[in-house]
Design goal:
The structure holds two protein chains of two kinds.
Chain A (H helix, E strand, L loop, with lengths): L2 H4 L16 E6 L3 H10 L8 E6 L7 H9 L4 E6 L10 H18 L7 E5 L5 H18 L4 H8 L15
Parallel strand pairs in A: 1-2, 1-3, 3-4
Helix pairs in contact in A: 2-5
Chain B lengths: L14 E7 L5 H7 L4 H8 E5 L8 H5 L6 E7 L2 E3 H13 E7 L1 H5 L11 H10 L15 E4 L2 E4 L3 E6 L1 H4 L4 E3 L6 H13 L18 H4 L26 H4 L15 H4 L17 H10 L7 H9 L4 H5 L14
Parallel strand pairs in B: 1-2, 1-3, 3-5, 5-9
Antiparallel strand pairs in B: 4-8, 6-7
The chains are: A alpha/beta, B alpha/beta.
């Protein structure tokens, strides 16, 4: 038996860490972020899978930010704003209300399941609703599994032609 | 690897011009003819050393050119197969300036809409399930074929359409599907005079930096969209903004330079000149814009209006799917 063959591959007993959904939540400053704060001060339990980004208004969330979140590896995205009629900027959330269903249709065309993208209204008093929503979204994203967009795009092969010789090099 | 001298310090003598097509329809080649009688002026100062559409150039001929032989090569079409990537690399090496010419080379163009489908689905549609097709033997293209004369290696189809800039370094981009003749002539004049901007793949030439709405003659009446209409089912009122009338016009998110040709002809802007201003993703830019002008104050009404837009992905990303944030179906 040669020396090379005795070298063992890394032990397979080390199981990798179990996959946990990574969810990005865009919360508006005036209602939903305060609602999430409310959930915290009320000591309500919800999964730690959600990464909160505070924005001044849910109408300020450019759909491209949501696309970028998925493209960079998020498994789910939540957008929460004030209830219709409660917007601090009067009609900011009206933009959210029309853009998000349209974006949801576009995301489905790209193959991103509707379970991964949720938009919901959470007021400053609705800490329990926010905690319930995070539990529900985390569970439904866990059901559909990892998205891993960067890995998928890599495996699809941008840059797969690295082995190709420019024409004329074969001779 | 590549010689990257500026066009202005080229060797004395006639300019050497090339044009190559990859995954494109041929419209870009025709658009070069759109410069009309200026073609005669161009031939005075430039030699065509590569243009498969109009003359017979073998790959071997191009491979035998010294590196940097072609002064300016206009490359149209996206990268769909291994052959196209191979030629793109060859042309890059032989050209001192490589220009991504047209929407396909720049952003994938219409062929990149197939990125929303897998290769399997495309093959099924093209070779099996197409109603006008008879393929009892279920024949599909092969990349390898053995013949008595020898083995054939054929190009393979890539799982998605890539931009030219995804496979080689690009010096300039000329947007448009196809680029408008007057703009092409302006660029060629600048090349002949040696007045080209600093080399930068982000530089788009042959266009302006505003949006199509800035060039459009149609009047804005500051009303919100009450109903979305499809162009083949309704006749637009002349001289009134098409978007306000409910036709999904991409003028607001599209770079100007074409002279608002489509809205002048009562057609909605398709967005072929790519994203305007600082936006990187034309589709979401338009999605944002259209979302803020809908006449909806309740969620039911918003969902109803959104449901009236036919094929939002294909409409908003018609020419730019390969440049979008997500790039392709998962």
């Amino acid at each position: 038996m040669s020396q090379v063959e005795t070298v063992q591959p890394p032990a397979e007993t080390e199981t990798p860490l179990a996959w946990e959904p990574r969810i990005i939540a865009f919360l508006c400053y005036w209602c939903s972020y305060t609602g999430a704060d409310n959930a915290g001060t009320s000591r309500l339990k919800y999964p730690a899978n959600v990464d909160i980004i505070r924005v001044m208004c849910s109408g300020r969330v450019d759909p491209d930010l949501i696309m970028i979140a998925f493209a960079q590896g998020a498994d789910g995205v939540m957008v929460c704003g004030c209830h219709i009629g409660d917007c601090h900027y009067i009609a900011g959330n009206h933009k959210t209300m029309t853009r998000m269903p349209l974006l949801s249709r576009v995301l489905q065309d790209f193959g991103i399941e509707p379970e991964r993208f949720v938009h919901e209204w959470v007021s400053a008093a609705e800490g329990d609703k926010f905690a319930r929503l995070v539990r529900q979204v985390t569970e439904q994203v866990r059901q559909v599994g990892p998205l891993d967009w960067p890995g998928r795009m890599y495996r699809r092969g941008v840059g797969h032609g690295e082995d190709l010789q420019p024409w004329g090099d074969q001779a | 690897m590549t010689t990257n001298g500026a066009t202005s310090d080229r060797q004395p003598g006639k300019l050497r011009l090339g044009m190559y097509w990859a995954s494109s329809c041929g419209g870009c080649d025709i658009s070069l003819l759109e410069i009309g009688e200026h073609l005669l002026e161009l031939i005075e100062v430039a030699d065509i050393v590569l243009w498969p559409c109009v003359a017979d150039f073998k790959y071997r001929t191009v491979a035998d050119y010294p590196d940097g032989y072609i002064d300016v090569c206009l490359f149209n079409g996206g990268i769909r197969s291994s052959e196209q990537e191979q030629i793109a690399r060859l042309v890059r090496r032989k050209s001192r300036t490589l220009v991504a010419y047209g929407a396909c080379a720049m952003d994938g163009g219409i062929p990149a809409l197939a990125n929303l489908k897998s290769t399997r689905e495309i093959f099924d549609a093209v070779y099996h399930s197409n109603p006008s097709l008879q393929n009892p033997g279920h024949v599909e293209p092969q990349t390898h074929w053995a013949t008595p004369q020898g083995d054939l290696e054929l190009p393979r189809l890539y799982p998605q359409v890539l931009r030219l800039a995804d496979v080689v370094e690009v010096d300039y981009q000329i947007p448009g599907c196809p680029p408008v003749g007057t703009q092409v002539w302006k660029v060629l004049q600048a090349v002949v005079a040696g007045e080209v901007p600093a080399r930068n793949a982000a530089v788009r030439v042959g266009c302006d930096n505003r949006s199509v709405c800035d060039e459009c003659h149609r009047e804005k009446r500051k009303v919100r969209i009450k109903e979305f209409k499809r162009p083949h089912l309704a006749i637009p009122e002349p001289n009134w903004c098409l978007l306000e009338q409910g036709f999904v016009c991409l003028g607001a998110s599209t770079r100007s330079g074409c002279g608002a040709l489509c809205p002048k002809a009562e057609l909605t802007c398709r967005g072929c000149y790519g994203s305007a201003g600082l936006a990187t993703d034309q589709g979401t830019a338009m999605l944002s814009a259209i979302g803020s002008v809908m006449d909806a104050v309740t969620e039911d009404r918003a969902n109803e209006l959104v449901g009236q837009i036919a094929d939002p992905t294909g409409t908003f990303y018609r020419f730019r799917l390969a440049s979008s944030t997500l790039k392709a179906h998962r």
